[in-house]
Amino acid sequence: METLSVADLQRHPAPVGAQPDWTIPQRWSDYSKAEHAIWNRLFTRQLTQLQDRAVPAFLAGVKALGMGPTGIPRFDELNEELKRLTGWSVVAVPGLVPEEVFFHHLAHRQFVAGRFIRTTAQLDYLEEPDVFHDVFGHVPLLADPVYASYMQAYGEAGSRLHEDSAALTQLARLYWYTVEFGLIRDADRLRLFGAGIVSSNGESEYALDSPEPLRIGFDLKRTMLTDYRIDSFQKNYFVIDSFEDLVRRTSVDFAGIYKELEGIAPIAVGTRLPTDILFPPNRKP
Ligand SMILES: [Fe+2]
């Protein structure tokens, strides 16, 4: 496994029991029957919901990686196929990790995943990402070569930033509105690809069908300036044309963009700008 640089490790000492790069063993055999049952319940509910909603590459990834209502996946098994397809792997971490650690893993094609799974009381909402959000939500698309390269490039862009900078906030918004809450065009309809949506039963319907939120054509600077909510469904989503198009639009000199955006006030959630290209919901009200 690739490791973080010495300087990074010194800035962010890992918690007791974790490796210096913050990873921990998945300890798959420690999951209880009840925990596997929660995975199975969530998996079945979401896969049914996503059949005609998720981008086809997501459903293809679920299949290619052998995910099913067959208990919490073993990361070592999942990684065999994932590595073969795109060179990515999933590594377990104890919880949220510092941004710098997160970026470095992404830059090395490693996706950090929570080891724990939510309880039955938290089926519809939880604050910290668990193994269902991280693995079901994020990992299938890592089997797609173009999306896989976007994620690595994102990690590289993040690795060049200092913590607590305005630039980091802007880059985090890009992640939020693509990797977590992105929508994508597919013929004459919209589909889901963001992990925060595909792993949420309520939002996977709302994001496509509700007349409430704005669905705005992706524009890099617009996205990087737009605030977001973490405590409710989104008030605005951004729509990409394709993963190829996303890669093309983000293959830029980010340093130049941060400079351009310096001092510009963030755009409040749910704001409609005259320059926005808007998409209607899939289901007409
Ligand atoms: Fe996530």
Structure in words:
- The protein is of the alpha/beta class and 285 residues long.
- The chain folds into two domains: 160 residues, Phenylalanine Hydroxylase, CATH 1.10.800.10; 118 residues, Phenylalanine Hydroxylase, CATH 1.10.800.
- Helix content is 46%, strand content 9%.
- The protein is built from 13 helices and six strands.
- A four-stranded mixed beta sheet has the order 4-3-6-5.
- Bound molecules: fe (ii) ion (FE2).
- The site of fe (ii) ion has 7 residues, from helix 6 and helix 9.
Hetero ligands: fe (ii) ion
Order of helices and strands: HHHHEHEHHHEEHHEHEHH
Strand order of the largest sheet: 4-3-6-5
CATH superfamily of the largest domain: Aromatic amino acid hydroxylase
Largest sheet: 4 strands, mixed
> Could you give the count of β-strands?
6
Which secondary structure elements does this structure contain, and how are they paired or packed?
Elements: H1 6-11, H2 33-50, H3 56-64, H4 75-86, E1 89-93, H5 99-107, E2 110-114, H6 131-142, H7 145-159, H8 166-180, E3 183-186, E4 189-192, H9 195-198, H10 201-209, E5 214-217, H11 220-225, E6 236-240, H12 243-250, H13 254-261
Parallel strand pairs: 1-2, 3-6, 5-6
Antiparallel strand pairs: 3-4
Helix pairs in contact: 3-6, 5-7, 7-8, 7-12
The protein binds fe (ii) ion.
